Amino acid sequence: MNYNNKYRFQFKHFSINDSDCAMKIGTDGVLLGAWADVSASSNVLDIGSGSGLISLMAAQRSNASITGIEIDPLAAKQSIENIKDSHWSNRISIINSDFVVWASMPHNISCFDHIVSNPPFFNNGPVAPNRQRATARHSNSLGYDQLIKLSKKLLTDNGKLSIISPVERQDDIIFYSELEHMFISRLTHVYSRTGGKATRLLWEFSKIKCTTEYTSLSIRETNNNFSQEYINLTTDFYLNI
Question: Which residue of 58, 106, 120, 122 shows the fewest CB atoms closer than 10 Å?
Fold first, then answer.
């Protein structure tokens, strides 16, 4: 299959073409894919699967069956192509559907022991003029409230939900999780550079009441080199780190 190499990103054990995807491969997706603890999972759901990055990372780190839900037909088609070229095509399926509609189907309830999502970030301000990019980047189509509420329905009793968010949405997410009686089991503050301000949060939620494990992660040191903790987290994926 001929891909435009301009849009192909080569990881250690798979490669991805994201030329038809509104949102390109970025640090957020890699962070979540490497951080989410799917090692013992049997059935994983990737909400807003895009190019298939997180689904492929989950497949590399587990023996789970993985389902990706993607609303954009171009991204869904391209992720299927990416997965066909991987070692784990027999364990990953991509569904082109609106997650809100799909999650309402009775046969999907309580089916997944881990859900991962790199959801839309921006819930206000101007929307991108490109409709495909706007859908991928804005939470008009899927907000944190719906994400948490519907994920709870789809999770098994011992299931986990892992997401990444901007720091600015922390209070909203805590409010929505408390509303749905979803408990924060892990919370990691992510810093772009040591000594700076946290820019992202990595969340893991549980349906079972638990004590929260708080950690922090810096991507780069003050000298702009990657930090050792970031290297340790992503070394199984990046070629040159």
Answer: 106
Given this model, what pLDDT does residue 2 score? 41
| CB hemisphere CA count around 186 (13 angstroms) | 17
Integer CA distances (angstroms), 78 to 2, 14, 95, 120, 175, in order: 12, 14, 12, 19, 35
In DSSP terms, which residues pair with 93 in a beta bridge? 67
230 vs 208: CA distance, rounded Å: 29
Is this model's pTM higher than 0.85 or not? yes
Question: pLDDT, tens digit, for every residue of 159-177?
Answer: 999 999 999 999 999 999 9
- Rounded to 10 degrees, the C-alpha dihedral 172/174/175/181 comes to 140
Cα–Cα distance for residue pair 118/137, rounded to 1 Å: 10
**Encoded tokens for 99:** 């997650």
